[in-house]
Design goal:
With 281 residues, the chain is α/β, with parallel strands linked by helices. The protein has a single domain, classed as Lysozyme (Orthogonal Bundle), CATH 1.10.530.10. The protein has ten helices and eight strands. Strands 1-8 form a two-stranded antiparallel ribbon. Strands 2-4 form a two-stranded parallel ribbon. Helix 2 crosses helix 7 and helix 5 crosses helix 10. The two termini are 32 Å apart. Pfam families: Glucosaminidase. This is Glucosaminidase domain-containing protein. InterPro entries: Bax-like, MGlyc_endo_b_GlcNAc-like_dom.
């Protein structure tokens, strides 16, 4: 309902009187930033709990043997996927905290109000249920599968030069971008350039969250965690539709990517920070 959004905007300068400070514990990831100059710089996984290495410079995996190329690609990408997913789940948790507050308090805290206003703007919606649906990420296996298809398992020029894993296009001259060697008809094509793989993954999740073509996918993934079932709802990700989703499903199955859906970030890299939402009055 638009009334929720209007209420938020109308109360951003108000504070709630209280006898003690109101705080919130926010979870984040202590990412370990690194660069890759040779394949040996890619950190391997020893178990399902992994260190969140975020790579700001990568190499092309084109010349590696197929099995090694695929493994190195997953090792490069999965940590950034888990970091991005953790951030999205942290936002959902904060939204749910605000919803609980609203049940007993008619006025939102100023910091909560600003937090929601920013998310509504970023994710192009104005209702809390829809916001949570757009924020919720999908299984890592789907992200890995699409990344593998779009970058040729880390072989594309856009991946090597701009950390662009998904070939996402750029439509604004003012942003960092790379010109494609081949345009469409008489129009030049550009793709976005990112500071890290994590930024590329974050932008991918935002694209899925905001573009109307993925509305059915968002609705389905909110209550479903089955990767191979969800893939069918990504038919509008590519111009070839069902051919694309069949290829994606086959890639996920043949490379056993669903096993990575159980991987998590090591606990020692998960941080909790207490945020002061309101001073005592």
């Amino acid at each position: 309902m638009r009334s929720i959004f209007i209420l938020i905007l109308g109360l951003t300068t108000l504070l709630v009187s209280c006898e003690k400070p109101i705080t919130y514990k926010e979870s984040s990831v202590l990412s370990q930033y690194a660069t890759i100059n040779q394949k040996e710089d890619i950190f391997s996984f020893t178990d399902t709990c992994i260190t969140p290495y975020v790579y700001t410079k990568v190499i092309s995996l084109r010349d590696l043997p197929v099995i090694e190329k695929k493994q190195k690609f997953v090792e490069m990408l999965l940590p950034s996927i888990l970091v991005a997913k953790h951030d999205l789940f942290a936002k959902i948790k904060r939204v749910e905290h605000i919803q609980l507050w609203q049940e007993t308090n008619p006025i939102l805290l100023e910091k909560d109000s600003l937090f929601l206003s920013d998310l509504f703007k970023t994710y192009k919606c104005n209702e809390l249920p829809e916001l949570k649906r757009r924020l919720k990420p999908h299984p890592a296996s789907i992200v890995l599968g699409q990344a593998a298809l779009e970058s040729g398992w880390g072989s594309s020029r856009f991946f090597k030069e701009g950390n662009n894993v998904f070939g996402i296009w750029s439509y604004h001259a003012g942003e960092n971008r790379i010109k494609a060697l081949v345009g469409r008809d008489s129009t030049s094509i550009y793709v976005r350039s990112y500071e890290s793989i994590e930024n590329s993954v974050e932008d991918y999740f935002k694209t899925i969250a905001r573009v109307n073509a993925y509305k059915e996918f968002r609705i389905e993934r909110y209550n479903c965690e089955e990767p191979l079932k969800l893939v069918s709802f990504l038919n509008r990700y590519s111009e070839v539709g069902e051919i694309y989703t069949n290829k994606l499903k086959q890639l996920i199955e043949s490379n056993d990517l669903t096993k990575y859906d159980t991987y998590v970030i090591k606990e020692e890299f998960l941080l909790e920070k207490e945020i002061l939402l309101s001073e005592a009055i």
